[in-house]
Amino acid sequence: MPLRLIFMGTPDFSVPTLLELVAHGHEIAAVYTRAPKPGGRRGLQLQPTPVEEAARKLGVPVLTPKTLKTPEALEEFRAFDADAAVVVAYGMILPQAILDAPKLGCYNLHASLLPRWRGAAPINRAIMAGDAESGVMVMKMDVGLDTGDVAMAERLAITDNMTALDLHDRLSRLGADLMVRAMAALARGGLQLKQQSEDGVTYAAKIDKAEARIDWTRPAREVLRHIHGLSPFPGAWAELENARVKILRCELAKGTGGPGEVLDDHLTIACGEGAIRLIELQREGKARMQAADFLRGVPLKTGAKFT
Predict the structure, then answer these.
(1) What is the rounded CA–CA span in Å between residue 280 and residue 289?
(2) At 101, is the secondary structure helix, strand, or coil?
């Protein structure tokens, strides 16, 4: 039996879930997303969010309130008479009155294996911490920060060659399928909830640009995970010949030398222990490029140093 849903989401990560819910026959009464922000070539044109763009194509009403804490916002939300709300990276706190408005509750898709990595940047933090796996979970929301009871989960191995974008895209598709199954279970009254454990709670703080500089004294695998966890944004970086270079993709390699030292003509760079080989880079003010293309523009001799 299809449900009448309010969908709340903002970035690319949210779009597959919206599309899958529609494809499986659920009625989307309204879409809530963040307001358009200035963008474009000159930064003057208002850019709608990816979710708004998708909703407009579907012909679904779109709302972009600045707050949900006013009586007017609550009245408008209630007027949609939704069975449930589905929330995927919306980016705004839902007050208790909003959480209580849908008949069957509000359900969030979170990109981690809760209670690990509650908070804003679970995909980045899982890679940067060297986690062996990540996943997605459907959670019935409460007023806490990702503390609600969990309904369903899917796991996914994190490999050393995965960047944050790679993991983001895979979890986005996996999460869309998971939320569809959760809403089907909710519709037939069979969605079971389990309280989160208080053991193993960690928080995925928002990424600070100040932590993007590469520390070459760390072991190679830690350097690799730091680079991949910040790729493509904000991008881990180092200085080379007084210019900033973002490193977007790399692999483990053999070699020893001083931290940051170029060991060969294939961009193998020494770390505190072991080495990495750079695969994709971006010079300041330039487009991203493969290592071979980078070397054609910036020929480096063995012994040069990234700092």
Answers:
(1) 6
(2) coil
57 CB neighbour count, 10 Å cutoff? 9
Contact 250, 278 (CB under 8 A): yes
**Residues 76, 99 contacting (CB under 8 angstroms):** no
Per-residue pLDDT band at 42 (split at 50, 70, 90): low
DSSP assignment of 168-185: HHHHHHHHHHHHHHHHHH
DSSP 114-181: TTTTEES-HHHHHHHTT-SEEEEEEEE--SSSS-SPEEEEEEEEPPTT--HHHHHHHHHHHHHHHHHH
Exposed (0-12), middle (13-18) or buried (19+): which is 284, by Cβ within 10 Å?
exposed
The pTM of the full predicted model, rounded to 2 decimals, is 0.95
Q: Using one digit for the tens of pLDDT, what is the confidence trace for 120-146?
A: 999 999 999 999 999 999 999 999 999
* CA–CA distance, 179 with 193 (Å, rounded to integer): 14
Q: How far apart are CA 208 and CA 185, in angstroms?
A: 39
pLDDT value for 299: 87
How far is Cα 115 from Cα 121, in angstroms, rounded to an integer?
14
Reported confidence tier of residue 1, pLDDT bands at 50, 70, 90: confident
10 Å CB burial of residue 288 (0-12, 13-18, 19+) is middle
Distance CA 60, CA 43 (A): 27
pLDDT above 80 for 83? yes
